[in-house]
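Work Package 3 (structural annotation) set out to generate three-dimensional models for the target panel prioritized at the project kickoff. During this period the team completed the workflow that converts sequence records into discrete structure tokens, so that structures can be stored uniformly alongside our sequence database. As a representative example, we reproduce one entry of 274 residues exactly as it appears in the project archive.
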Amino acid sequence: MTQLAPAPPSAASNSENVLVAFAREVFAVANAEFRKLRRDPTEVLTRSVQPILWLLVFGQVFTRLRAIPTGSLSYLDFMAPGVLAQSVLFTAIFYGIAVIWERDLGIIQKMLVSPAFRSALVLGKAASAGFRGLSQTVIIYVVTLVLGVKVRFEALPFLGVLLAVLLGSAVFSTFSLAIACIVKTRERFMGIGQVLTMPLFFASNAIYPLEAMPGWLQVLARGNPLTYLVDALRSLMVVGGHSALGLGRDFLVELGTLILLVIVAARLYPSLTR
């Protein structure tokens, strides 16, 4: 009897195998980062001090002054999503310094000689940064409830907040990783990180609406990913909040920015060891 040769694998099965391998690599990197955070959770707590102070001091004072037009929202309600976005930004933007530490310890070299996709290595780290952002979300929600902010707890809006925070954390951590690949030293990275955080924060709609900005600042704000994160959070997080830019556009801009940054960071990643 003549034996039939096994059929060659189809293109669809090859694509499926590649996707499964990619997802497994992303999960492996994210899981390793999560374990480091679980052993030392103090970083999450210390990163929460600054946004809590913003809500307790800045938010309380400006609520009394009523100096910034916020429509039907109290200033504290208006500001709460911006403070959550600030917490996401400040936690994620210094994520690249951990990558430089890993380079100095020889961990990056071991990862780069593996057959793993470079983009999977980057996306895995972005996913772990997203988890850090979610932990910040829990803390900010607790503080806003104590302060009397009218927070929404319906299932879909809350899931939307979590998705926005995941995307925002991933965007800024990947941006941070790309910067780390370029500067390659902790001292330079810390200086650049300090320079970038405040312009990103103040050139956004986190603490004042777009309409209150001068024209040139509005242009900068619309090119700032943090603006779209704040806009999405303001629509989903507080009662009476609405999106000034369009909720669909907010998520599309964040997702598109993430894809672009992952591609850039994946190309730069091997240069970190040179």
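The radius of gyration is 21 Å.
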